[in-house]
Amino acid sequence: MTATDFQRTPNGAVLMDGNRLRDTRVGMLAGRLLQAGSPSICLATVLVGDDAPSRVYVSMKHRKAVEAGLVSRGLELPSEATQDEVESAVRSLARDPQVHGILVQLPLPGHLDTERILALIPAEKDVDGLTERSLGRLVRGLPGHAPCTPLGVMRLIEHYHVATQGARAVVVGRSTLVGLPQVLLLGRKGIDATVTLAHSRTSNLAEVCRSADILIAAVGQAGLITAECVKPGATVIDVGVSRSEHGLVGDVDFDAVEPVAGAITPMPGGTGPMTIACLLENTVAAAVMQGVDVPLV
């Protein structure tokens, strides 16, 4: 697909469609696994409690895993499950050679120690890229799994031919789940963006954002990024999610920013679907790390 084939907004910006790209990449994974003889590659999820959005997210992950040709295993525990019970479940999956990737759906109920639970996931099975060992590997450039959301952003950038070499990128948000790994991925050799990390305490935030050729918003503050924050022609990628009376909304005021941007993600339908695609991509990579023979193409 060339740049002229991309769907555009009414004002001419490229619409970075995460749903379409997710399904394309899921199809590619399915083809790889079929070519490999359909090996049994298992993604296991752990869901604790009855949080409705978490249940929806996990269900979607399992559905797309099956479409990709993966084995999907879901483990559910009640909201009153103890720390020992949850840790025992994760340890069991960690020891199981038939499980190649483990995802603990967050957030966990407040009485549980999330870090202790995540620390039980072996780095090679940490397909969500959430543990300190995975982040350490990312920092040092060692084999491992990047967190799925920032990796999904990179897949969108690649697919939509967004120039990164020498480009100025601004990441708004400094979480260890998105902001910090996003900075690392954009600054990698071969990507070669010059990256600024901004956050809620950044002075003159709008001015800092306007310096960006690539602006990534990952704060979780609805409508934070307005037209005055965007350089004309910039690529604007919305990662933040908030719930409102109108449904899901992002950090980017889409209606205000779309006439200014050169490329923009919708919300929903932008980075969220790509998070799932990259979870499945990481699961196949995890299986390869554990000795399963899957061709690269």
List keywords for this structure.
3-stranded parallel sheet, Rossmann fold, 297 residues, 2 domains, 11 strands, alpha/beta, globular, 16% strand
Please indicate the percent range of residues in DSSP E strands (runs of 2 or more).
15-25%
Number of strands: 11
Name of the CATH superfamily of the largest domain: NAD(P)-binding Rossmann-like Domain
The chain-level mean pLDDT equals 95
- The sequence of SSEs as H and E is EHEHEHEHHHEHEHEEEEHEH
Find the CATH topology of the largest domain: Rossmann fold
Q: How many discrete structural domains?
A: 2
Helix fraction? 25-40%
**Major sheet characteristics:** 6 strands, parallel
- Identify the CATH class of the largest domain: Alpha Beta
Q: What class would the helix/strand composition place it in?
A: alpha/beta
State the low-pLDDT regions, or none: none
Strand neighbour order, sheet with most strands: 1-11-8-7-5-6
- Per the principal axes of the C-alpha atoms, what is the gross shape? globular
At CATH level 2, the architecture of the largest domain is: 3-Layer(aba) Sandwich
From the alpha carbons, calculate the radius of gyration and give it in angstroms.
19 Å
How far the N terminus sits from the C terminus, by CA atoms, comes to 18 Å
Number of helices: 10
